[in-house]
Write a structure and sequence with these properties.
7 helices
């Protein structure tokens, strides 16, 4: 079983004040590069989210980098080519969608690229609008049984309990 996690899940996993923290962090604890992926550009989105929060929840840049390094170690990071980005834009244009939903389309393009069995997001409605054919795979953390815990190392580079 392979999983793809979007930015909203990763941010909630590290923000203890987030109401979605528990289910997000539980999922992230199970992630390893052999069973989980995220978009490479998600790392930038997580950085922007964590360092752009209002005090007292704002992360200092060096704290955010510890989180990013941990996520890089836990996930296979998926990159897109220029042609893949343009195809994603063509796809949403064909659906008559505009604006920031392009970023959801890019994430879904990454999930397709790795043929993810489950796509985790806190933005299910938008994801399903962009990719109705993947609707059955798009879920919120905790919604379905998901990843088997890798029985290898207990080391967690981010320090999730």
């Amino acid at each position: 079983m392979s999983a793809f996690l979007d930015t909203s899940v990763l941010v909630a996993a590290v923000r203890t004040a987030d109401l979605r923290h528990e289910s997000s962090s539980e999922l992230v604890r199970k992630c390893r590069p052999d069973n989980s992926s995220c978009a490479a550009h998600t790392l930038a989105e997580v950085y922007a989210s964590l360092t752009g929060m209002r005090p007292p929840h704002r992360f200092r840049p060096e704290q955010a980098m510890v989180v990013l390094d941990g996520f890089r170690a836990k996930f296979r990071c998926v990159e897109l080519t220029a042609e893949e980005v343009l195809n994603a834009a063509r796809g949403i244009a064909g659906l008559g969608l505009s604006g920031g939903i392009i970023y959801d389309a890019l994430l879904l393009t990454c999930a397709r690229k790795v043929n993810a069995d489950l796509i985790y997001t806190w933005n299910v409605r938008h994801f399903q609008m962009v990719a109705p054919d993947l609707a059955g795979r798009i879920v919120e953390p905790g919604q379905q049984a998901s990843l088997e815990v890798n029985q290898g190392s207990d080391d967690d580079p981010i320090g999730f309990p």
